[in-house]
Amino acid sequence: MSDVPSDPTPLILRAVVVLLLIPLLILMLAIVLYICFKAIRGQCRQEDMELEEDNLAVMPRQAIRV
Asked: What are the sequence ranges of the domains in the chain?
């Protein structure tokens, strides 16, 4: 007996499903990376703003001492 199936339909369906799933998985990965980097960038900006506020609070004290 031959191992090759006589009906190619399951093979074609499997190929179509795989070819549709690969771009979908890449798209999902891109979305996850975008959200992660956007969240990280937002945290960095928040930390920068806090540092600026601290520096602004320190500046008047230094001006008084001089």
From this structure: 11-66
**Distance of CA 35 to CAs 6, 23, 38, 57, Å?**
47, 18, 5, 33
Please write the tens of the pLDDT for every residue from 2-37.
Answer: 566 678 888 899 999 999 999 999 999 999 999 988
The DSSP letter of residue 7 is -
3-state secondary structure of 4: coil
Task: Provide the 3-class DSSP secondary structure of residue 5.
Answer: coil
In which element (H, E) is residue 24 found?
Answer: helix 9-65
C-alpha span between 8 and 13 (Å, rounded): 9
Q: What value does the CA radius of gyration of the chain take, rounded to a whole number of Å?
A: 29
Report how far residue 51's alpha carbon sits from residue 48's, in angstroms, rounded to the nearest whole number.
Answer: 5
- Residue corresponding to tokens 């499903």: 17
